[in-house]
Every structure is written in structure tokens, then in C-alpha cells.
Design a protein that fits this description.
Blueprint lengths: L9 E2 L9 H5 L10 H17 L6 E7 L2 H12 L7 E5 L2 H13 L3 E5 L8 H10 L5 E5 L1 E2 L4 E2 L2 H10 L3 E5 L18 E5 L10 E7 H6 L11 H11 L8 H17 L1 H23 L14 E5 L8 H10 L2 E2 L10 E5 L6 H18 L11
Parallel strand pairs: 1-12, 3-4, 3-5, 5-8, 8-9
Antiparallel strand pairs: 2-10, 6-7, 9-10, 11-13
Helix pairs in contact: 2-9, 3-4, 5-6, 9-10, 10-12, 11-12
This protein binds pyridoxal-5'-phosphate.
The site of pyridoxal-5'-phosphate (PLP) has 13 residues, from helix 3.
């Protein structure tokens, strides 16, 4: 990016995202990691994150340094028992597949229930898998599969998991803070997310909201010292401190981002803003002639996957470069099996930003000479 931030630069990606000036400004001072003020900030942020999921009674928030994947790997390694644990991983995209890789690499027994990238797992099928295999201890679900933008049926999967007496781990990375997830309504042993998606913080910190009793039972289970959330939790209990160098500036930014989240009106208001962004984007793309990968009923208001147009004159890289020069950053690289590109609706972006993006796309199409018909996907 060589252009100055005028017009406003926006990231229409699945994270890191456009952040608020107050969030960036919160990073302009240094913090002593063992200082009282930082210990207090850590406690405050942990409590605020747990409260967002209504999990403050039986759950506790344990943050971990790194991106979201670090938090997913830490949670699975900490909670799925080494010897008698077995995870049923529900897969319909790249993030579900990543969880399978984590289980393979850290040596946690697992089986996979895979559906197509545009198909949520049916709760009845999951119930049948659980009935078939009494050795399954955990179900692992990706809430919003960011590969496609699909919203998986969390409440239904949580209900069948609970009925079968198994534990649920939710990768809520791309939904946490924007889509409702209430731990007094659904039963989950752990919910995993990160600072830099719908909370609109800076990247560098993940966290899990975990049942306290599960953490107590998990002492000594983790595969890695730095990713041992039970050990980190015990250390927080004793000292209020992080075990190893914390991302001090990122935590301060998250604290400020949580202020902004609260001022906006919490999860409901943030979800409503993203939903409005998504509506403007999807309607506008369809009006131009593009086809979205998902039907509206499965589309979460997080990121929109667009089928790659058939017309050879359509050049995604040229579109990307043109929008980039106008301060609009798309996400290059598809992760769906079908050719596609994605445009995010999350971060400090608003309906006007979506309209500006659509206008810029329309201009780019005119310049490429792509006709409306040419925007249909290859059969
Ligand atoms: C972003 C994301 C992750 C974590 O990705 P990182 O690049 O490690 O931050 C995990 N799961 C889902 C569903 C995500 O959207």
C-alpha cells in the first residue's frame, strides 16, 4: 500500500480488519507486563470477553499470544485428553480442515464429518455419529466457516452434543462479538476467538472462554508449554499475570475496541451493522450480475464469497489493483474448492463503504469491458 489514507483505507478481508482510530491510538504507549496497571487491564479484558458470551459464571477467558489458530490449537491441545479423548470434527471448509490438521499434528484421536462447502452439517447426522461411537468425547464446530461465509447451526449442534453427553468446542473466530453466542443458552466447553475479527482489535491475541472445571481437569494434558491454557489459567489465578511476554499493545487496543463495541450497542448493534453491510454488498453484486456462492439463508453477515465470472476479460488481479489504488483492499486468494473471491463486511466499515466499493467494482468492469452476462460463473 503506497497511497495515503485518503480516501479512507478499508480492509474488506476476513481479518485483520479496519480498526477505529481510538483502537490504534490505544497502542501509543508502553506497558510493563508485570506492572499493576497492566495486570488490571488483563483482568478487565478477560472479564469483558467472558461477559460478551454471557459466560462469566462457570466459564473463564484465557487469552494466548498469537493469531486465532494459536488459540484453536491451544484449546484443542489443552482440552481433548491425550489418551482417552476423541474429537468429532465437523468440516465444511478450510477452517474445519485446519482443525483436523491440528488434531493430526498434535496427536489427538479424531474423526471427521464432512459436508460440502455450501452445506451445514445436519444435527441428526451428528447425533447418529455420536450414537455410533461412544469413544467420541468432543464435537468441534466452526461457527461461521469463513471459507465461504456460511453460518453453521450452532444451537442445533450444541443441543445434540449435550444430549449425547459430549463436550462442544466452538471455533467462533469470525462470529464472536457480532453474532449472538450465549453460554447460558447453549452448552459449550470452550468458545475460541481472536482480537482482530468482529471485535475490531489489532491482530496478535487469541482467546478461549472455557469451563473452569474443564481447565482444572486438563492440568498436564497440553501438548505444548506455550499453548497450555490450563497452566496459563492457573498462573492467572496465582499472579494475575501472563506466563510469557504478553502482546501489551494489542491488549490495550482490544480494551479500547471493547469500549467501542459497547458504545456501539454490543453484539446486537455490531451484528446489525454488519448485516446491513452484507445486504448492501450482496444486493449490489447481484445487481451488477455477479452470483454469490451461498443462498441468503446460509449467508452469515461476515464475508461474501462471489463465484468467479466466466468472461475471460474479467481479471481479478486487475480489479484488486484498481480498488487498492482507491484504498479498498479485497482479499486475494480463494479458499473454496470452486473458483471464487471474497469480500468482507466486517471491521470499521459502513454501508457507504460498501456503496463506494460497488461503484469502484462497476467502474472496473466497464474498464475491462466485461458485459453483465460475462459475470455468470463458469458452468
Ligand atoms: C480467522 C479464522 C481463524 C484463525 O485464523 P488466523 O489466521 O490464525 O487468525 C480460525 N477459524 C476461523 C473460522 C477464522 O475465520
Amino acid at each position: 500500500m503506497t497511497e495515503p489514507a485518503d480516501p479512507k483505507q478499508i480492509l474488506l478481508t476476513p481479518g485483520p480488519l479496519t480498526t477505529a482510530p481510538t483502537t490504534r491510538e490505544a497502542m501509543l504507549r508502553d506497558w510493563g507486563s508485570r506492572d499493576g496497571a497492566f495486570i488490571e487491564m488483563t483482568a478487565r479484558v478477560r472479564a469483558r470477553l467472558a461477559a460478551l458470551a454471557n459466560g462469566s459464571e462457570i466459564h473463564v477467558c484465557v487469552p494466548v499470544q498469537g493469531s486465532g489458530t494459536f488459540a484453536v490449537e491451544a484449546t484443542i491441545g489443552t482440552l481433548v485428553p491425550r489418551d482417552r479423548g476423541r474429537a468429532l470434527v465437523l468440516v465444511n471448509g478450510a477452517y474445519g480442515k485446519r482443525i483436523v490438521r491440528i488434531c493430526q499434528i498434535i496427536g489427538r484421536s479424531h474423526i471427521v464429518h464432512e459436508t460440502a462447502e455450501d452445506t451445514p452439517p445436519a444435527a441428526g447426522d451428528v447425533a447418529a455419529r455420536l450414537a455410533d461411537d461412544a469413544t467420541i468425547t468432543h464435537v468441534v464446530l466452526v461457527h461461521c466457516e469463513t471459507t465461504s461465509g456460511l453460518l453453521n447451526p450452532l444451537a442445533e449442534i450444541a443441543a445434540v452434543t449435550r444430549t449425547a453427553g459430549r463436550k462442544l468446542i466452538v471455533d467462533a473466530m469470525s462470529s464472536f462479538g457480532a453474532l449472538p453466542l450465549d453460554l447460558s443458552d447453549i452448552t459449550a466447553e470452550a468458545v475460541v476467538a481472536s482480537a482482530n475479527k468482529c471485535l475490531e482489535g489489532a491482530p496478535g491475541l487469541g482467546f478461549a472462554i472455557i469451563e473452569k472445571q474443564a481447565l482444572a481437569a486438563a492440568a498436564g494434558n497440553a501438548h505444548a508449554l506455550s499453548l497450555d491454557l490450563a497452566d496459563q489459567h492457573a498462573y492467572f489465578e496465582r499472579t494475575g499475570q501472563w506466563r510469557f511476554t504478553p502482546p501489551t499493545h494489542v491488549l490495550a487496543a482490544l480494551d479500547a475496541a471493547l469500549d467501542a463495541h459497547e458504545a456501539e450497542g454490543g453484539v446486537a448493534a455490531r451484528g446489525a451493522r454488519y448485516t446491513a453491510n452484507c445486504r448492501v454488498l450482496v444486493d449490489g453484486l447481484r445487481a451488477l450480475g455477479f452470483e454469490t456462492f451461498l443462498p441468503d439463508a446460509l449467508q452469515a453477515p461476515i464475508i461474501v464469497t462471489v463465484r468467479m465470472p466466466v468472461d475471460p476479460k474479467f481479471d481479478f488481479q486487475a480489479l484488486y489493483d484498481r480498488l487498492n489504488r482507491q484504498g479498498i483492499v479485497l482479499y486475494p486468494g480463494a479458499v473454496t474448492q470452486e473458483k471464487s473471491f471474497r469480500i468482507g463486511c466486517i471491521g470499521q466499515v459502513f454501508e457507504d463503504d460498501m456503496r463506494r466499493t460497488l461503484a469502484a467494482i462497476a467502474d472496473a468492469l466497464a474498464e475491462m469491458g466485461v458485459a453483465r452476462d460475462g459475470l455468470r460463473p463458469a458452468a
